[in-house]
Amino acid sequence: MKKYFFSAALIALASCMTLTSCSDDDNNEQGGSPSVTNPKEVSFIVTSGDPTTDLTGGVYMKVYNNLTTNKNGETVYGAADAVKSYDSFTQVTYNKNSGIFTGYIYARGASAQGIGSMKAGLRSYKVENGKLTEVGSPVLVTAFGNTGTFGTYSYAAQISQPYSMVVDKNGAGNNISVSLPQYAIDNVNPNISNIVDMGNNQVAMVLNYSNRDSAAVAICDYNLNVKKVIYDNRIGTSVGAMRSVRYTLSGADDNGNVYVFAGSSATDGKVGALRIKKGETEFDKNYQFNIFAVSDGYRFRKAFHISGSKFLLEFYLDKNKYGNMDASGKMAVVDMDTKTLTWVTGLPDASTVSFGWGDGYAGAYYLPVAAPTRMGGGSGNGGGWNHGGNGNHGG
């Protein structure tokens, strides 16, 4: 019986229960139709750290079963039955194709007992007999901003250099030099914002230029060889950031269509989304979603797929403050088919909590919530998972 494991980077108080989120419905690698999964067949990967140590206390990871069962009053950090990493993770991913759970280590969170002080890297895990077991050895990187998965790989892309560390299902890393400098505009190279799996050995590598406010996507194979780069100035640049962390502002729906979002353009009409239809390698000239027009003038920092054609967007709290260090946490669900927006209600006040790395599953989004600890090095978010109705908003 196939299991689906959910992941979210949750950095919470040691006394908090922190549960993960979920992967999208079981899309196959070619972007086919999802199958239905019984929530009782779902497992949680719980990742918990202690913010009082400022990323120096490592993380504990524990696997929970049965999405329908509430877990209250439990502690993961320091638990005897949890697996410890001496290194702290600022981001995590789960690859549903390979079954690999990856923790991304910002240099400030690297321990002398782990990969070594002030070294960034990746650790890979798989679930065996209900516990996480490390796969291979830690893979060191110079730096990273955006992280994610495609095919059977996990990756960490550098912020301002054309390199992406790609790690396979055996934990082996390959630092790929992407031929982005040849696509420089006015002597400015593009940076990698996100890599979206299009299936069939093809990805949409979303790019951003520091000197341009427009969308750019490189169509690549799984070895990140660039086939072509496409541009569109109907929306602004697609990059979400908090300090050194880069957040997702693009993704594929259940039908394999890729959506590229621009959340913080200074030009009102460029705050929105474009589409690359499944099987195509150009922007759909007949599709543009003006999100600014339906959000009452708010801009957003993050965009994550829930299921179907719905995405969860995290908006800035102030209409006039949408920079790298400004606060966000106002949530809305957008339907990319109908071009509608619904504000999420029932969440804690975003000025008093912090939202972690969530994920979508079976029409709902599972959003970690914790005390508003903002740690150095760009972890930006942390939290326990608010299990149950609050914070979970589906279609």
* Alpha carbon gap, first and last residue: 27 Å
Q: At the third CATH level, what is the topology name?
A: Methylamine Dehydrogenase, Chain H
- The CATH superfamily name is Prolyl oligopeptidase, N-terminal domain
Distinct helical segment count: 1
Structural class: mainly beta
* CATH architecture annotation name: 7 Propeller
Topology:
Blueprint: E1 4-6, E2 42-49, E3 59-65, E4 83-85, E5 91-95, E6 100-105, E7 120-128, E8 131-141, E9 146-150, E10 153-157, E11 163-167, E12 173-177, E13 191-199, E14 202-208, E15 215-221, E16 226-232, E17 240-242, E18 245-247, E19 250-252, E20 258-262, E21 272-276, E22 289-290, H1 291-294, E23 300-307, E24 310-316, E25 328-335, E26 340-343, E27 354-355, E28 359-361, E29 364-366, E30 368-370, E31 384-385
Parallel strand pairs: 1-2
Antiparallel strand pairs: 2-3, 3-4, 5-6, 6-7, 7-8, 9-10, 10-11, 11-12, 13-14, 14-15, 15-16, 17-18, 19-20, 20-21, 21-22, 23-24, 24-25, 25-26, 27-30, 28-29, 30-31
